Amino acid sequence: MNTAVDDYTMPGGGANIASLPKVSLHDHLDGGLRPQTIIELADAVGMAVPVADAAGLATWFADQADSGSLVEYLKTFDITTGVMQTKEGLTRVAREFVQDLGADGVVYGEIRWAPEQHLARGLSLDEVVEAVQEGLDAGADDVAGSGGSIRVGQLISAMRHADRGLEIAELAVRHRDNGVVGFDIAGAEAGFPAGKMREAFDFLARNYLPATIHAGEADGLESIRGALFDGRALRLGHGVRLAEDITTSSEDDENTYVTLGPVAQWVKDREIALELSPSSNLQTGAIEQWGDELVDHPFDLLYQLGFRVTVNADNRLMSATSLTRELFLLSETFGYDLSDLAVFQLNAAASLFLPLEEREELADIITAGFDAA
User: Fold this and answer.
1) Domain total for the chain?
2) Mean of the pLDDT values across residues 186-200?
3) Does the residue 50 lie in any domain?
4) Would you say residue 213 has pLDDT above 70?
């Protein structure tokens, strides 16, 4: 990943996007490891890696992930989760994750991960959550020590194909005073609707813990509908295929008419945030019905229609990206200016799983940072 600060000035000159305050809603812990860290942690536990140098390994991940299939994309996580099975590995990865967010100008990040995938070497569910929180806290201290400021929260994910939804929901609630701010379900989407974990979502609702649900990435409107009404999702993880419920027609050369279906209308009217991840959506084939280039992504359509769109990196390692880079690519593709990027960040701040007053404080930080750019 190319993260040189001077690479991401706004198209046409002006502010450097890396220096602007940003909010990250959708960023996977096991998708943001440093390649050198993978090599060192793999060596410590006797695990083989496909490429032995950091630059080559970074390229391998990007090439493997660029498959056009979510299933193939997810296979790369066998390596990253493989080195995150010890307290030391989890704490180091979490600490570096926050350091990297801070270096990218992120002032608040919600970091999602699935504790059930990190038990192979004997740690308990509670122990892995505690190890990650220790790393997150250390990373935030590191950012503060270098003159920056960042806050983070954990989003605890349950894997859709496993039968542990209620157990993981209980884990999330148990640690809500130790860094956990919300719940998620992740993994293979098609065939594993949110309704299969209805008991978990009922438990979360009774305990007032919010949920964001992966939906509308590898499956369509039924998956989104299930996330909204079975999972009570306050945000949609990706949600890009919501555009399937939007019809456009042109009766002449000057006017285009847009009709929203009932699911799209519900999402728009309730300002349910769409955690869009442009590069990832291209890699996994989530937008293949519209095309295979960024200009084909329905991001701009959703934005122009007034949906609460947000911009996210999803998996920084697999997509060889950062939040700054995603914003730069969108600006370059759709001609967005600083005022547009500010909207995306304010949308994200408004959608965080934080108390209202804290969301408003972050909005003030974002506005001040963009006004000064």
Assistant:
1) 1
2) 94
3) yes
4) yes
